[in-house]
Design goal:
Blueprint: E1 2-8, H1 14-28, E2 35-44, E3 54-62, E4 67-74, H2 77-103
Parallel strand pairs: 1-2
Antiparallel strand pairs: 2-3, 3-4
Helix pairs in contact: 1-2
């Protein structure tokens, strides 16, 4: 999984770069082998004026051609990154889970098996 980080209207610090990379790996988790690339775009809309103006846009490209996107805004870059990557991780899980279920047998259409009856002692 390749991680690309882009900063707009501010200088990207090594601390923020490390945070983004660590959170991206965590958010993709066990599905990271099915993710080709994660691109995180960070932007400070108001510049030095402050406020809830830090934006993180995440684009995830999957191994088999799919693409997902999420976005979050916060007063800090770490907060925006955390929320955007959490949303992206959930979206990847849903998308890959949905494609996996289509390839395999559904729980509802599988054969029914009776549970064992246990007698009370």
């Amino acid at each position: 999984m390749r991680i690309e980080i882009r900063a707009r209207h501010f200088t990207l610090t090594e601390t923020l770069r490390t945070h983004v990379e660590r959170r991206a790996r965590f958010a993709m988790g066990r599905l990271s082998d099915r993710v080709r690339e994660v691109t995180v775009r960070l932007e400070d809309i108001n510049g030095p004026r402050g406020g809830v103006d830090k934006v993180a846009k995440v684009t995830v490209r999957l191994e088999h051609g799919g693409q997902l996107a999420s976005e979050a805004m916060d007063a800090t870059f770490p907060g925006a990154v955390d929320r955007a990557l959490e949303r992206a991780g959930h979206a990847v899980g849903k998308a890959l889970g949905r494609s996996h279920r289509q390839d395999s047998e559904s729980v509802r259409t599988g054969p029914w098996e009776a549970e064992e009856q246990h007698s009370p002692l």
